[in-house]
Design brief:
The structure holds two protein chains of two kinds. Chain A is an alpha+beta fold. Helices cover 30% and strands 36% of the residues of chain A. The mean pLDDT of chain A is 94. Classes of the chains: A alpha+beta, B alpha/beta.
Chain lengths: 76, 347
Amino acid sequence: MPHFELDARRMFCPMPVIRTQDKIKELNIGDTLEVVSTDPGALNDIPAWCRINGHKVIKTRDADDEVFILIEVCDV
Amino acid sequence: MSQQRKAVALISGGLDSLLAARVMLEQGIHVEGINFFTGFCVEGHTHAIRKQDKSKSKRNNALWSAEQLGIKLHIIDIVEEYKDVLINPKHGYGKNMNPCLDCKIFMVNKAKQWAEENGFDFIITGEVVGQRPMSQRKDTMPVVSRESGADDRLLRPLCAQNLPETLPEKEGWVKRDELFGFSGRNRKPQMALAKKYGFEDYAKPAGGCCFLTDESYSAKLVDLWDARGTREYEMDDIMLLKVGRHIRPAPHYKLIIGREDGENKFLQGYKNNFITFKTMDCPGPLTLLDGVATDKDLELAAQISARFSQGRDKDSVTIEARRTNGDTTTLVVKPMPASEINPEWYV
């Protein structure tokens, strides 16, 4: 399945959530998207947005003041 | 079987919008939330920037509300469109630079457009008659309905019994007698309803969720507009108003001085947009200079910056001034004593 990346660095919540939301609208079921953010709040907010909207968070991690959220686009 | 009606709920992240949406779900309405990002509803940003706040738990309250309710939430970026609301409010400002009535009209109008595009029947808000001095008064709530174009498709479940019947009530989509008649600033009815529904950890913002209601923030915004001679602004401008000490020693320039490591790091990201100052021989703040500056201004800015460094009591502090093209100048200055900083310089 195609994999995509979204650079949401130097944005503060909710902008990383909004960019994630807008990007996922363009993707197909089964595609994966990795979001990179410098706002630690994204580590809570993007998974919350995924839970609400029915997408799957495969993995989260943080390193060097950046957070990474890997999402699988689901059928909603 | 009758058609399930759909409502879009304005979700701010506060208790009232949470309850209003819950009341509709109780009546079998399909509810989805909408939340607007103006650039000024930025309660999480200081947490994200300031190192000392890093340990505090962070959550987006609108997302939290939607998750409690089990509804979808659509977050809409209205930063650009909102500029006109802030700069030219038809109904004026509140106590500070908050154009609350125009803001509510604008958001309800945006929700109406969204509802039409997505096949939703009506709009709900958590407004309560008499709760807010500008947008939630008996005389201004009909103005919101009318000027937003939502008219009788705008339902306020928490105070509907105090207002004329709306279309969802007239059509029997919702039962009016199962709505509420809350009014005034007393929060006890909402707290009782929250208890009934089992909501405990809801947000309790003091003074609302918008920085435009904040006196200090508003003063900085007005200063920015006055200094530039225009009310235009960009996202970076309104972010920088939230960070650091703002000191204006002269009309043509302002200093933004980091107060701790997190702010210094954040300000460092603007080194290619502003002249920056950093201390070289002792720990100190990163300072941005917003405006134009002569060599004499640079000297004064360095003295002020040194005053907020750990070398404030030394005879001299070495400061590197960096221009936006990367050229640097080393200045050795005497830190300005606190008593010589004119209190009127603080924005």
